[in-house]
Amino acid sequence: MEVQLSEIFIFKTIGLRYSKESLMVLDINTEFTERLSKYWGLTYLDSNEVEGNLCYAQNQNLRPGYRMVFSKLDILNYLDRQLKPGVYHIESDSVVFSKTIDF
Q: In a designed cystine with 44, which of 35, 37, 83, 97 is the match (CB 3.0 to 4.6 A)?
């Protein structure tokens, strides 16, 4: 699934060019997380809080094939591996999300 950066991030309309580091601190668009959730067949967790939860579904060390949920941190880790250092135009550059998940 190819997605434009403008679909992933909530950004200021003043600047359209962002470094990789600047992109990684932007908020993630809710519509994008819903779309990615359907594509991956996983539930999106708005919070990374897992303290006191004995359920392994949220365990970050669980093999990808057994995961049932993903979080903002998972998206950012994926993007960190996909984006090379440099400057990106948020309205024209895109990222490809594979169907197989490798967090």
A: 37
- Name the phi and psi angles at 72, rounded to 5: -60, -40
Whole-number Å distance between alpha carbons of 74 and 93: 20
Terminal alpha carbon distance of the chain? 16
With contact defined as beta carbons under 8 Å apart, do 44 and 37 qualify? Answer: yes
pLDDT at 52: 47
pLDDT in tens, 44-93: 998 755 554 545 555 555 545 556 889 999 999 999 999 999 999 999 99
Name the pTM for this structure.
0.79
Q: b/e map of 54-69 (b: 16 or more CB within 10 Å)?
A: eeeebeeeeeeeebeb
Distance CA 101, CA 67 (A): 9
The answer to whether 9 and 75 have CB atoms below 8 angstroms apart is no
Nearest C-alpha neighbor of 67 from the set 96, 93, 100? 100
